[in-house]
Design a protein that fits this description.
Helices cover 26% and strands 27% of the residues. With 360 residues, it is α/β, with parallel strands linked by helices. Among the domains are: 43 residues; 198 residues, no CATH class. Strands 1, 2, 3, 6, 7, 8, 9, 10, 11, 12, 13, 14 and 15 form a 13-stranded mixed β-sheet that branches. Strands 4-5 form a two-stranded antiparallel ribbon. The radius of gyration is 25 Å and the shape is elongated. 23% of the residues are buried. This is Protein CBG24803. It holds the Pfam family FTH. InterPro entries: DUF38/FTH_CAE_spp, F-box_dom.
Length: 360
């Protein structure tokens, strides 16, 4: 019986057409003679989600093909440690230390090249992704502490270099990723196809010191708002403090959730007025904040007019818009009553503005 590589090409295509992604990736690695044929075949694995998690000593690549999820883990260890094992058995390797390389250089020169090499192959089999998630995970989850921030910096530099070299624009419905600055957002976001992106979900990471709120820095996003990816998306969620851009930069979104250090009266008034703008698509605007003058809400919205269904600890206002067929509800909730388990504990309250149709 002939070996697999010795079979006629048409026979191989028939044999391989029903193989799953895990088997094709394994076959590419153990049978170099078949790589060209595999790369030419038009597989449809139904890959709908890819999640990338960067940690201090490893990178996880999780792939979802609908009914099946599988994980590839790339680990870096010094030479005296045990060789690392990839969870799915696809790749086993050991990175050796060298007197000519620092640990972090060896880590990025070999370890990242393996990861991006595999990612390049996997993306060949991707048509459209429902979700692309890229996150860097701090060593200490409580305070967001990164013992080696250069690890994160170089990972995003390598990611940008990879995307540029491949000259690709990923067709992604929802982009969810962690960044430490506007610059890191700009390293990834321009390579997402602007005609396919619906939801932009950004986590702006920073070291947290709850006892010293003044140590937390807000991040500018002015250059992000200039991108077509921002302008064409429908939903926006930014976790982490930002300097809010002009309100008009939000009006094309349907849903917005942002976090700011201080609520300013003029900006709050502009957000409310945006809901009355005929060209605005805003349906919901949620603000998580740390500070606000206690009289700001009164000056902007007047006295609250809670309804029986409203929480006793909340403040609510109602304004009819668009020929009285739509009602704008504005709600103000202390954090402990907002039912946001994942919200950063630095915030004190949540303010949301939401439109809904008046029942006939």
């Amino acid at each position: 019986m002939p070996n697999l590589p010795d079979m006629p090409e048409e026979v191989l295509k028939i044999i391989l057409k029903d193989a799953d992604l895990r088997r094709i990736l394994s076959l590419r690695k153990v049978c170099h003679q078949m790589r060209d044929l595999l790369d030419q075949m038009d597989f449809d694995f139904g890959i709908d989600q890819i999640q990338i998690s960067r940690k201090l000593y490893e990178t996880d690549l999780e792939i979802s093909t609908g009914p099946e999820n599988f994980l590839i883990t790339y680990q870096w260890k010094p030479a005296e440690s045990e060789p690392c094992i990839i969870l799915d058995g696809i790749r086993t390797f050991e990175i050796l230390e060298s007197k000519h390389l620092s640990k972090i250089d060896a880590h990025n020169r070999d370890y990242d090249s393996l990861f991006f090499g595999d990612l390049r192959i996997i993306l060949k089999f991707v048509k459209n992704l429902n979700l692309l998630k890229i996150q860097t995970i701090p060593d200490n989850q409580f305070n967001g502490f990164y013992s080696c921030p250069i690890n994160t910096l170089r990972f995003y530099n390598n990611f940008e270099r990879y995307l540029k070299s491949e000259n690709i624009y990923l067709k992604v419905g929802t982009l969810n990723f962690v960044a430490h600055s506007q610059h890191q957002v700009l390293q990834i976001l321009p390579f997402i196809h602007s005609n396919f992106l619906e939801t932009l979900d950004i986590v702006l990471e920073y070291p947290r010191h709850p006892e010293h709120l003044e140590a937390i820095q807000s991040i500018k996003i002015d250059k992000i708002t200039e991108l077509d990816q921002w302008k064409n998306a429908e939903n926006l969620r930014i976790q982490g403090l930002i300097f809010p851009p002009k309100i008009k930069d939000f009006e094309h979104f349907e849903l917005v959730e942002i976090s700011i250090a201080t609520v300013v009266e003029d900006e709050l008034r502009e957000i409310k007025e945006a809901f009355f703008n005929e060209n605005s698509r805003l349906n919901c605007f949620e603000i998580n904040y740390i500070h606000m003058d206690v009289t700001t809400l009164l000056r902007v919205f007047g006295f609250p007019e809670n309804r029986p269904e409203d929480s006793a600890d909340s403040e609510n206002w109602y304004f009819p818009i668009k020929d009285d067929q739509i009602l704008l509800k504005i709600g103000h909730y202390p954090l402990e009553d907002a039912n946001h388990e994942q919200l950063d504990p630095i915030y004190s309250s949540i303010l949301f503005l939401k439109c809904f149709k008046i029942p006939e």
